[in-house]
Amino acid sequence: MGELMSDIRTRAITALIGLIFISIVLFIGGVILKGAILLV
């Protein structure tokens, strides 16, 4: 039972890191896009 819980926790942490990474990438992309629009 403990092994299953740790597997779920590991998966949840991995998903959370993935979400944070994606949101950071999207945020940086949006900033670059805004900067490009302002330059044009």
Can you give keywords for this protein?
mainly alpha, membrane, 1 helix, 0% strand, single chain, rod-shaped, transmembrane, 40 residues, transmembrane helix
Brief overview:
Keywords: Membrane, Transmembrane, Transmembrane helix. With 40 residues, this protein is mainly alpha-helical. Helix content is 95%, strand content 0%.
SSE layout:
Elements: H1 2-39
What string gives the helices and strands in order? Answer: H
User: Major β-sheet, in short?
Assistant: none
Approximate helicity band = over 70%
What is the alpha-carbon Rg in Å?
Answer: 17 Å
Contiguous runs where pLDDT drops below 50 for at least 5 residues: none
- End-to-end Cα distance, whole Å, is 58 Å
Q: Assembly type of the shown chains?
A: single chain
Task: Count every helix, treating DSSP H or I runs of 4 or more residues as helices.
Answer: 1
The tally of beta strands, per DSSP, is 0
Using the alpha-carbon principal axes, give the shape.
rod-shaped
How many domains? 1
Per DSSP, what share of the residues sits in E-state strands of 2 or more residues? Answer: under 5%
Describe this structure in words.
The structure is a single chain. The chain is an all-alpha fold. It has one helix and no strands. The protein has one helix at 2-39.
